[in-house]
Write a structure and sequence with these properties.
With 190 residues, the chain is α/β, with parallel strands linked by helices. It has one domain. It is 40% helix and 15% strand. The chain is globular.
């Protein structure tokens, strides 16, 4: 049996993934700061995950019942600026995209039991959505309106359409279509 966690960069990503996970009935445990009201930046990921593990979300004894644990992460990469201490967050971009940033840390992978799958938007999600033909809501809290709001089959078709729109964009801009594809492969039949 597999276990799924989702680290939410912010509110938009949290609402986006909640919609997909609930439509496909995927038991996904969301990890976010203040329900997504405070964003998690790429330079904070390792510390945030370690903190969540210490709080109990990713504790070994809880995870022993699972063959694999997937931690899905969707980040906006538009805020990778030089930090006040002089460090450059752009140095984290490629290791994040490849998954190396987290998957190469034995303390985070718990002997390869935890697999980190990293997904990204090179801009913020709303700006990426504007590059599609989807109608983009005015407010971040209305992000779920890019999908149909009723009927499981209609919702599933809407998710497929959103995936196709993201797939048409260059991989340098986003790979959210691959996140949706992964979740579709884990959906419960209804």
């Amino acid at each position: 049996m597999e276990k799924y966690f989702f680290v939410c960069h912010g509110k938009t990503e949290k609402l986006f993934i909640e919609y997909i996970a609930s439509t496909y009935r995927i038991p996904l445990e969301l990890l976010s700061k203040k329900q997504g009201r405070v964003s998690i930046q790429i330079n904070m990921l390792k510390d945030y995950i370690k903190k969540e593990r210490n709080k109990g979300a990713l504790i070994n004894k809880k995870l022993n019942d699972f063959s694999k644990i997937y931690v899905l992460i969707l980040m906006d990469l538009d805020e990778l600026n030089t930090m006040p201490d002089g460090s450059d967050l752009l140095d984290l971009k490629d290791p994040y995209i490849s998954g190396e940033l987290l998957n190469s840390d034995e303390d985070l992978t718990l002997n390869s039991k935890i697999i980190y799958l990293t997904f990204y938007n090179d801009l913020n999600m709303e700006d990426v959505l504007h590059k599609t033909t989807l109608s983009v809501p005015e407010s971040k809290t209305d992000i779920q309106k890019v999908f149909p709001l009723s009927g499981i089959e209609m919702k599933a078709e809407g998710i497929e359409q959103v995936k196709k729109e993201f797939a048409q964009l260059d991989d340098k801009i986003t790979n959210v279509d691959k996140l949706i594809e992964f979740l579709q492969s884990r959906k419960s039949e209804f």
